[in-house]
Amino acid sequence: MQINENQPFVPVILGGDIGAYSLAREFHEQYDVLSVVVPSVMTGITEHSRVLVPRPFARQDDPAAFAAFVSGLGREFGGTNGAKRPLLLLGAADQHIRFIATHAQELAEWFTIPYVGNAELDRATEKDAFYELCRDLGVSYPATVVHDCAGASADPVALEAELAAEGVPFPAIVKPSDGVAWGALEFAGKKKVHTVASLAELTELIANASNAGYAGTLVIQDLIPGDDSGMHLATFFSDRSGKVRFVSCGRVIVEEHAPGALGNSAAIVTQPNETAVAEGSRLLDALGWTGFSMFDMKLDPRDGTYKFFELNPRLGRNHFYITAAGHNVTRFYVEEYLRGGLSGGAELEVAENFHLYNILPLRLLRRYLPGDMKNEVEELISAKRYSHPLYYKKETNPRRWFYILVSTVNHYRKFKRHHPAS
């Protein structure tokens, strides 16, 4: 595939996962444009597609080399000083957003960048700073202890006393404040998020992370009871003045549990959530945030409150749940950053439609539906109000559809091996 010189703008999307493909599909659906997608390696997600031009670059962990490569894409697709046509630079994962923020000055020669800078990223995404903001604003979050891995080895007695003082019992959840640094680590048994059953397990995990070179902080939290279906999402868009203009909420129905994908949503029902809208808006107003953001939260059955876990400084991996319900996310990028600003005044637009986002075979999905959502999900399926981001009718290459079929069916094997019993 080649990009026509008359195409009015070009999205350049860093990453190659289902979220990166979703963005390329959404730009194609909304504006009939091709996107440049930059995976580290080619996979079935980005191969044989008619909506994107793949430009793989393996050394994405080399910032200088990656910046030079992305600047080269700017020269190729934007022309001298970006004057021929605008380019949007987008990232599919946290490390891409950090890379863009760090190299914004040099990349801005070629690209329009719809993200905040490093200082704003630090305050919003480092979990200890985020929880401090939640505490200041009275937004609920799980009982938390933050442990600094840059210091000496954890003193079990002091750590146990601190956990007791903050009301963090075992089993507890452990996750890194710096997800980018954590992603670069290698040690036996590493996961995105750990559940530890005892003080001994916790101190062993801290030691393993420190020995592997992690010098950030670990967030140790109260494990909120309940299964995947207690998780909720809220995706916001704030304009360049920092005003929240759009929000779409969803309830997670099923999550993936394979070690490398733990916590990724496999099925989401888009639905309104007044609490998430109100609390998320307060956090974003305090941050002066611009662009997209997404909050993860869980409904705590013990007190009926939503506990906020984190702010993601971008569209989520499974953000297609928003577009599928009738609000194509690319419209916000194009109108706000390329065409002078969003239309429709400054009123907050809240998505109201119910829709099922799902990447599982329907038979497998039904096996894991929570009891209180079975009727609603079945109604959405019967009404054909469900979507898979890779199922795009404009894709016509049979090799691509074979990959999609195999990857979808492969969930049976993954769920049998890793997923808790239904």
Outline:
The protein is of the alpha/beta class and 422 residues long. It has helices at residues 18-31, 63-78, 94-102, 104-107, 118-125, 127-137, 156-166, 179-183, 199-211, 274-287, 320-324, 330-338, 362-367, 374-382, 398-418; strands at 10-14, 35-38, 52-54, 87-91, 144-148, 172-176, 194-196, 217-222, 231-238, 244-255, 265-270, 291-300, 305-312, 349-350, 355-358, 386-387.
Task: Write the topology of this structure.
Blueprint: E1 10-14, H1 18-31, E2 35-38, E3 52-54, H2 63-78, E4 87-91, H3 94-102, H4 104-107, H5 118-125, H6 127-137, E5 144-148, H7 156-166, E6 172-176, H8 179-183, E7 194-196, H9 199-211, E8 217-222, E9 231-238, E10 244-255, E11 265-270, H10 274-287, E12 291-300, E13 305-312, H11 320-324, H12 330-338, E14 349-350, E15 355-358, H13 362-367, H14 374-382, E16 386-387, H15 398-418
Parallel strand pairs: 1-2, 1-4, 2-3, 10-14, 15-16
Antiparallel strand pairs: 5-8, 6-7, 6-8, 9-10, 9-12, 10-11, 11-15, 12-13
CATH architecture of the largest domain: 2-Layer Sandwich
Question: What's the N-to-C terminus distance?
Answer: 43 Å
Q: What's the helix count? A: 15
Number of domains: 3
General form: globular
Mean pLDDT: 93
Question: Helix amount, in percent?
Answer: 25-40%
Identify the CATH class of the largest domain: Alpha Beta
CATH-assigned fold name of the largest domain: D-amino Acid Aminotransferase, Chain A, domain 1
Unreliable residue runs? none
Fourth-tier CATH superfamily name of the largest domain = ATP-grasp fold, B domain
Find the count of extended strands (DSSP E, 2+ residues): 16
- Which secondary-structure class do the elements indicate? alpha/beta
- Strand residue percentage: 15-25%
Largest sheet: 8 strands, mixed
Indicate the radius of gyration in whole angstroms: 21 Å
